Every structure is written in structure tokens, then in C-alpha cells.
Amino acid sequence: MTSQNAAVTPAELLAGIRQARLVGIVRGNDGGAAAKAALAAMEEGFQYVEIALTTPNALEAIREVRAAAPAGCLVGAGTVLSQADVEHVTAAGGQFIVTPSLAPSISEAANAGIPVLAGALTPSEAYEAMERGATAIKLFPASIGGPGYLKAVRDPFPDIPFIAVGGVGLDEAAGYWEAGAIAVGLGGPLFGTAASGGDLSDMRDRARRFLGLAAEFAARTGTPS
């Protein structure tokens, strides 16, 4: 494995996610539908989408999305836990990895120059993940404490970039941004059942609404988008 497999450096991914404020999370029971959902979100304007390895045929879905993704869009893999997972994802063309926990995959990917959004909930876990080479922390599940908890965790670690994931919908996203999250990760509230063969038109509508919300927040706060 080399950093060339990722096609993006950790610094580049971090800068891009800071600007986009949104990461799509595809998890379903049909790899073909997952690929279609990911590509539809990208067509609407989502630049960063991960496909969870718990989705059947996820690696093939990643290959399909990588081959057809619009310019500037990146596909990653979620629920990446082991060294073997990292190897399989990079072989499939995955450009970044996401973990749900302090998994061995964090240091494995970081050592290879592959960007890692590492799952953590507590301050100790967040610190440990960054020590292992994480690019950013996926605060998960964020809904357990909401924006107030994110702010409390950030207070001693103002330089750690946090992405709020888990139970974040249209009504919650701005609260996490205001609490200091560089982005929010959107699974069910964005994709619904699209990754299992559900309606894509409704998902596209939700994608446009999230993108509009991010643009409104950028305009209101005077920050780039």
C-alpha cells in the first residue's frame, strides 16, 4: 500500500471536508443500490461519500463509484476495522477510510498515508486516535450528547477536527457546526432506504436541502463553502 492509492493526502481531505461541511454515509443491503445512491448524492453536490463495508458487495460498489464519480468527488469506505480491510479498500480504489472505533485500521492506514476519519466518543479515545495518526475524529454516536457534548469535548482539544456522526438530521446539523464540528456525517437522514433499493428522488431532494443548509451557514457565518 502507498499513499498513491488514496489519490488524496490527509491534509487535502481535511481541507476539503472543512469547506464542504458534509460527508455522506451509505449503508444498506444492496451493493448495486449503494453505488447508485452514492453517485446520486455526488451528482447533487456531495463531494465526500463513504460506503460501509457492512453493505453486501461494498468493495465492488466502491470500485463502481470511483470509476464514475464526478470530478472532485471522493469515495471512501466505512466500518474499516482491520489491516486486511485497509488493503481491500485501497485495492478497490477507496480514497479514505472511516472507522467506528479505535480499530487497528487507524494506524495501518495512517502509516500508508491514507486519510482516516477515526471513530471516537470520549476525550481519551479522541486523543488516542489522533496519536495513532487519524486525520479527523468521527464523534460517534454524536446524538448521545448532542452539540453541547461536542463543545465540552472540544474545549481541551481545540485543534482536533471533529465530524459529528449519528442522529444528525436537517434540524441538528447547524447546531453541530456552531459547536465547532468541521462537518457532519449523514447516513439515514440523507439516504433513507436508497442504499437498499429505495427511492432516489427523495434522497436527491434531501441532498439538495443539506447542501443548501451548509451554504446558508457559510453565508451567515462568513466562512468559506
Can you describe this structure?
- The protein has about 220 residues and is α/β, with parallel strands linked by helices.
- The protein is about 45% helix and about 15% strand.
- It is built from ten helices and eight strands.
- Strands 3-2-1-8-7-6-5-4 form an eight-stranded parallel beta sheet.
- α2 runs parallel beside α3 and α2 (about 30-45) runs parallel beside α10 (about 200-220).
- The longest helix is centred in the last third of the chain and has 22 residues, at about 200-220.
- The protein is globular.
- The N and C termini lie far apart (about 30 Å).
- Mean pLDDT is about 95; it is low at about 1-5.
How would you sum up the major sheet? 8 strands, parallel
Overall radius of gyration: 16 Å
Widest sheet: strand ordering: 3-2-1-8-7-6-5-4
Report the span from N to C terminus.
32 Å
**Silhouette:** globular
Q: Which percent band covers the strand fraction?
A: 15-25%
Detail the poorly predicted runs.
1-6
Query: Count of DSSP E strands?
Result: 8
Helical residue percent band? 40-55%
- Please tell me the overall pLDDT: 95
Total of DSSP H or I helical runs spanning 4+ residues:
10
Condensed summary:
Helix content is 45%, strand content 15%. It has 225 residues and is an alpha/beta fold.
Keywords:
alpha/beta; 225 residues; 15% strand; 8-stranded parallel β-sheet; 8 strands; disordered N terminus; single chain; 10 helices
Topology:
Layout (H helix, E strand, L loop, with lengths): L9 H11 L1 E5 L4 H14 L3 E5 L5 H11 L5 E5 L4 H9 L5 E2 L6 H7 L4 E5 L2 H9 L4 E4 L6 H9 L7 E4 L7 H6 L4 E4 L1 H4 L8 H22 L4
Helix pairs in contact: 2-3, 2-10
